[in-house]
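This section describes the prediction task in plain terms. A model, or a person checking by hand, is given the sequence of a single protein chain and must write out its three-dimensional structure as a string of tokens. No templates, partner chains or ligands are provided. The sample shown here is typical of the held-out split.
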Amino acid sequence: MIQVALALVAGALFAVGLGVSGMTLPSKVIGFLDVAGDWDPSLAFVMAGAISVHVLAYRLLRWQEGRERAASRAGAARAPRFPLLADRMDVPTRTDLDARLFAGAALFGVGWGLAGYCPGPALASLATGSRAVLAFVAAMVVGMVIERLTTARTDPAPLDEGERARP
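The expected answer:
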């Protein structure tokens, strides 16, 4: 139950951050993407902040993994670990670049440029009740369902435990 409560708090904090930063305003996002016109670079600072937090958290995770490996080789007792409220942290291990990745990135970019929303800000903007947001989220859900159905037909084997990294 505490995991659900903390996830709710984290999600609410994320939504507030998106709103404060302007990421929920399509005009601000489109202004950021319009580098040939009236460019608004302010969202670059938001992205730089988000990337820096991720880099620090990822480095902490990798440092902890190295410490745990060294401690287990030395027979030492386990130190407190991250994540605190889960058994493990799922870190993607795939590094290949394929057509599906490029197609998905292109589709994301086109949708972001045309609508001014990406998934997180669109979900946060649902609270406004705007028809444009509702239409975007509905189209996003339909796209997810189509992707799931086509992937299930073309990729019969889901990722197994061996394809995930465990700290």
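For orientation: The radius of gyration is 20 Å.
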